[in-house]
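Expect chain and fold; thus:
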Amino acid sequence: MPRKKSLKKPVIRLGPLTVRAIKGEPGAWLWRAEYYPPGGGGRMRTHSMSRGRGDRYGRDEAVSRAAQLLADGVHLQRATSEGEQIRPIETTKDLLEAWLGAQKERLGGDLRRGTYKGYLASAKRLAALPLSSVPLSEVKAAHRSSALRRLRAKYADSTVSLTMAVLRLCWRWGMDEGFVAHELPGRSWSRRAGPQHMPSVIDVLSTLEAMKGKDSRTYIDALRLQQAILAIEWMFYTGARPSEVALARLRDIDWKRATWTVRDCEGAKTGSREVPLHEGLVRSVREYVASLSEDTTETLWPPLIDRESLTRIWGGHARRGALAAGVELWNQKGLRHLAVTRMLSSGIDVATAASITGHSPVVLLKTYAHVLNDRRKAAVDVLAPPTGQVIPQHKPG
């Protein structure tokens, strides 16, 4: 017996009011109005739209009653139940909730739904940080710096830039509303526009050759240069993110199967996956490990420093190597683009390429659609009839 399809309950948005059908059937719904009152700490309030028990009606009547509620100014009142206390805005998290409530009131007016979703995602990232529980009067520049450091360890610079912008917007709104008495401490941050050029294979090999020919004054400089060379080769062979390579440990490599397990931890971003290693990369890793005198079970990159500083050192060596080789400047992200482009151009299917680099197949299709255009054209050409062959036309009857 076919499964009965559930009815889709209608939702009507009228400025600050959201009118929602709770239960019933088409033409006879039980309705409820939802709104975020000013000063309500970002908490949603509800208002029954029934005039009596079992009062059910259709969409037109719901719009009429909602318009009357707007005229009465119900959405501007603190409609709390007896004994309920509205939570005061004391912490950054409270301020984020109140600000989101105020932004939701703008939906359908001067705020697009996509923009609001972006605000909501950024607020969730901020709410997961220790900064969210700090009282507003005690927020210092160090709290902002710590939040920035944690975000950059987990997300791309573009995401971090958007999240910090949302924090500034929220804080400014809190000052205008009287919830915050001072400016957001600390310096503003936005991502620096680095070289976005995707290098060619020749560019990468020339850069590595220039790096290998460089002399270092101290042992630590020589070690960091050696690590940068290996890290660039690692990203070149696998298309991995710099943060993932910085997290690599010796125990993550299966020498018999020649695979590297990317662990599901902060910095990996897309969860755990197993990446095959080319014999050339395996040979380079073995030679590097043999040259070390320290234990490399916890990290392949002694002495231990934070991941962000480590990847920044690698990027600096790559830029100096590119300058010495006389090629156009490129960054570590360019190596990832190069790896995906080479795989797709060589006929590797999207699912396989995504499983190696840790992309979502959907994102890969959107981002690298231009690489697949030639293959799509070739696929259409295969469907065409052979040249010179006439397709017979059959007359009806």
